[in-house]
Amino acid sequence: MHIEKNVCESLIGTLLNIPGKTKDGENPRLDMVAMGIRESLKPVSEEGKRTFLPAACYTLSRSEKKKFCSTLAGVKVPTGYSSNIKSLVQMKDLKLINLKSHDCHTLMQQLLPVAIRGVLPKEVRTTIIRLCYFFNSICSKIIDPSKLQQLQDEVVVTLCLLEKYFPPAFFDVMVHLTVHLPREIKFCGPVWLRWMYSMERYMKILKGYVRNRHRPEGCIIECYIAEEAVEFCSEYLANARTIGVPKGIEERIESRSGFKVIPIDYKTLCEAHYYVLQNTTVVDPYMSKNEKWLQAEHKRSFSSWFKRKIETELARPENTISQQIRWLAHEPKRKVLSYSGYGIGGYYYNTSDHDSRSTTQNSGVMVEAESLHMSTAKDKNPIYANMLYYGVIEDIWELNYTQFKIPVFRCKWVDNKGGVKVDENGFTLVDLNKEGDPNDQFIFASQAKQVFYVNDPNGGRWSVVLTTKPKLYDRGDVCDNIEETPSFSRGLPESDDIDNEDVAYVREDCEGIYVEEDTTSRKKRKRT
């Protein structure tokens, strides 16, 4: 945890040349000259009190710094994912400030590899992405012991690549300790069982108890006892909500907001009703019996056929039609319950209209669905295969079937043909303006998985897809506070520069750095 934080601060400080945090400067350049390496980066003293440092391969130009900081300043993440990233970016000075441990964790796990897309030479960029992928891999809840040696070999190669580009001053003890992390996992188990995020969060709670700074221990003890007493008593009060005690995480996630009743047009209602029938298990026997007929007209008239079929079977004295099938055979009510926010399955979702007015992004969804694939328009042997679909929630509805309600999301889906691609580094990119089939918009709320989109720093219409994880298991029965972040990439980026000895240490397309002489330190040396 602290290794990740220190490596992140050194990396960002060096890339953005943040004073006091960068590992680059006049002295590190002079060290390299004394070592007889990278003499092309030798500092040049100019008239006056300035020293010119040639642009190294890890140096960002001012335009690249703006692109880097603008990407992070424009990120909108789901609720509970992290702090407000925008508040950490200082666009005036082009640097990041007030980074906490979890902020560095979030950057290294997902956001930093996205922010450096389109900046830096390809070799340097790929090496940094490899380092981030390593930290993401060791933070997984499940780690295959047989792959630890592979992780060990990969981080050794990654550090060797870093040594080719970054100055020797960059490699302090914290960077060195990354080599030992796979071995530590082998002996001590997964990282998430031993890190200190929960302890640091609880220390913040305890600090909030302090009212008298001269007696902090007494304040903490009194407030802790009072809170424990209130919570103990509240367990014996049925259907009572304590005043001043915030809602638990399961109540905040499994909640709804923006409730209203709206009428919808009949065509849209039939489309939603058909999706419910198509994806309900008890209706499968009726689907399979009419498979050939359904291939031509099932979407247009299956709902009415299904209703007549059930009415015919109910007319028989001895029938086995369940109550669920009886109510599904009837269309839902024309008026639906509409929400702007809905919590289910450990995720909290909002509509895209709500997200446009919010600092968070909860409208991105992903679903894995089975679809029909044909090689050509005349293919007579199509196959079914699972595919990932990405989209944005337009509406959140509850269809009312009188005896029960079914929550569905009406989404704007991205067309997988030309609207989704995977680049050479394993990033999934989508074109949110390339809309898929407008007649296939609905999914069950329980089928959705939350994602969020970050505008590609390379520009254009593409957005990078980043996934999140649910906050709970089984509707709050087990609270899951483990900060595991899904991988930003589908695999470890390969580097073709491992054996290449011809490294361009100086960037010709980037301006250098001017360093002012520190007169105060010189005066102190003279006095001593």
SSE inventory with pairings:
Layout: H1 2-16, H2 26-35, E1 44-45, E2 50-53, H3 62-73, E3 89-90, E4 95-96, H4 101-115, H5 122-138, H6 148-165, H7 173-177, H8 181-188, H9 197-208, H10 216-234, H11 249-253, E5 256-257, E6 260-263, H12 266-278, H13 284-289, H14 291-314, H15 323-329, E7 335-339, E8 341-344, E9 347-350, H16 352-355, E10 364-373, E11 383-400, E12 405-413, H17 416-419, E13 420-422, E14 428-431, E15 442-444, E16 449-455, E17 462-467, E18 472-473, E19 478-479, E20 513-516, H18 519-527
Helix pairs in contact: 1-4, 3-4, 4-5, 5-6, 6-8, 14-15
User: If you average the pLDDT, what whole number results?
Assistant: 82
Specify the number of helices: 18
Main β sheet profile: 10 strands, antiparallel
How many E-type strands? 20
Helix content: 25-40%
What sort of overall outline do the alpha carbons produce when their principal axes are compared?
A: globular
Strand content: 15-25%
* Alpha carbon gap, first and last residue: 40 Å
